[in-house]
Input
Amino acid sequence: MLTFTPRDRLKLIAGGAAVLLGGCGGGSNSSPPPVTIPPPVPPTSPPAAFIPTAGQFKDSFATNFQVGAAIQTSQLNAESEAAAIVADQFSSITAEFEMKPDIIAPSEGTYNWDPADQLMDFAENNGIAVRGHALVWHVTAPDWMLSGTPDEVKTKLQTYIADVVTRYRGRIYAWDVVNEVITDDDSAADPYRRSNWWAASGGNADYIDWAFEAARTADPGCRLHINDYSTEFAGKRRRLIEVVRDLQNRNIPVDGLGHQMHINVGSTAQQVFDAVDDIENEFMGLEQHITELDISVYSDPGSCFSNQTGCQADYGANIPESIIRDQALLYRDIFEGLKTRMSVNSVTLWGVDDGQSWLNRFPVNRTNAPLLWDREFEAKPALQAILDPNFTP
Ligand code: GLA
Output
């Protein structure tokens, strides 16, 4: 089909007018050729931004899983576009920082509940469920909790967990009881991370048992999870399976496994499905959550994470459209595939909008765009692809 720019149209009309004028006054005997004036073509404008209908994202997966987002209290003010999006489109939230021990219990015997309470109120006022994250994580363990003999440490950890889990009992549907306790070392003799918690337990993984037992006592109805990253890789997954198997064999109350899924545009949906399917095959009845999903626009080598070398150059404001398209297709395939996996009952994105994502600072400072809303809070092709099977990004 021919298309005409406004300039072409003007030329045609002028030309047609000249022929008509010639026909009237030119004195020629032959009849003028018929002139067809094309219909006006509207000026080309960028396609309208996609706007999901009220509740569309969470409703689309309501029979499959909770649709979650990590959020922080600084995003909860009245003008916050992120809060408005979460209230409208998500059925679950996770506190990005506010439910970690360094925030809740900065010093022994002092609790700082306000930030966590604010998030809890926001969730409850908007009919949103809350995932608790995380009771034990080596990065956010306050020094006071780790000092003393293993027995003293056990008492401090169990008191902390009893107090936190009891405070929110019945209001948090799942807690990440332990986060990132598996080693990244593929040649390690045992699967456990050598962390400050390992040391404080007396050079063993007993703290994991203490934590799960205390959480179960404090809230018997809450689902207790072990959460980790890189479960899309077979080695890490094998070690995680070994630990869960051991916990189950000793009747330590673990109900679920969280896959963080910080992946990138070079990852495949099949990697995500392999992670979920392997766990489903190993452990009948263990529920699975995707807990921190984001898709970086950079496919970095391992060295970028270990010593910040070899990282892909910063795209700045010019992230290629092809990358945003690949990201959309990957998001679409992941959500489509997770729908059919019955053990998955919660999928959380690690943030709402690209501007706020931790990946703008990790592993290096660089403009990243790993989420479903952009820096202007407009829905990205990824969200449209997830929600509309006929949409081609
Ligand atoms: C890990 C933690 C999260 C968060 C991210 C980075 O994945 O589990 O709580 O801190 O790192 O933001």
Notes: Strands lie at 66-71, 92-95, 129-137, 174-179, 223-228, 256-259, 262-264, 287-296, 344-349.
